[in-house]
Write a structure and sequence with these properties.
alpha+beta, four-stranded antiparallel sheet, globular, 9% strand
């Protein structure tokens, strides 16, 4: 609020919000907040879900997700109707939250590789640990990112990033990848990474398979949504040509 009071133009152009959706929440109320509250209306927002690793939050509070899925279904229908209409909703602040909630995976589909896969294919969702992001503990230990958390260290402030540790983590993950992913239909759209295969201090085949089924179901649903919209309006996603994925 103080930033907006001191420089409203800077606040408008440079301030965004990262949202973590945690059950039990109301998508209706969140949508209303980002549509009506002038502090956040029209600003860039990014949305992520709760990482349930190393937490008993869901079990402790016995979360009922029924309301969430009912509201998600309604907002999905709202999104479909908006996207098949001729009205440009890409900069509509009243549509900002709904579009952001639905759009990320659809951008991945639109920007997917449209060619034969090469003989060698590196896992799509995996980063090069320590290259673009680093998570540093109060003690000075380096970890890959906040999603991996205090696990699988890759160095420290005294020794820097230890290439051997990074190489070993990648090699262990590729073993899981080769055994499970090489012939998967969703290979090009899969965004799972080290965090999705981590169990405790190691990478786990069982954890990878468990997450894999969830991911494939999600990709299937997003493909259905994507094609449902395209069948009604073939130009509905043309604006995504200008979106750059870094």
């Amino acid at each position: 609020m103080k930033i907006k009071e001191k420089n409203e133009e800077y606040y408008k152009e440079h301030i965004g919000f990262l949202i973590t959706l945690v059950p039990s929440y109301s998508l209706y109320e969140i949508n209303k907040f980002f549509s009506e509250d002038l502090l956040v209306r029209g600003h860039l927002i990014l949305i992520s879900g709760l990482n349930t690793d190393d937490t008993t939050f869901l079990s402790d509070y016995k979360i009922d997700s029924t309301r969430y899925y009912e509201e998600q279904k309604h907002l999905t229908n709202t999104y479909i109707k908006a996207m098949i209409s001729d009205k440009d909703r890409t900069s509509d602040p009243d549509f900002n939250f709904i579009r952001t909630l639905m759009e990320k995976e659809l951008i991945d589909i639109y920007k997917r590789q449209k060619c034969l896969l090469p003989p060698t294919y590196f896992p799509a969702g995996v980063c090069a640990p320590g290259m673009r992001r680093l998570f540093v503990s109060p003690e000075g230990t380096f970890y890959m990112c906040e999603r991996v958390g205090y696990h699988l260290p890759i160095g420290d402030i005294d020794n820097g990033i230890e290439i051997t540790k990074v190489r070993n983590i990648i090699s262990d993950y590729i073993i899981l990848f080769d055994e499970n992913c090489a012939n998967c239909w969703s290979l090009c759209l899969c965004k799972h990474c080290f965090s999705s295969a981590r169990k405790g201090e190691n990478l786990s085949m069982d954890k990878r398979k468990e997450i894999c089924e969830i991911q494939k179901n999600s990709i299937h649903n997003n493909l259905v949504l994507y094609m449902t919209i395209l069948e009604k309006n073939p130009q509905s996603f043309d604006y995504m040509k200008e979106i750059k994925i870094s």
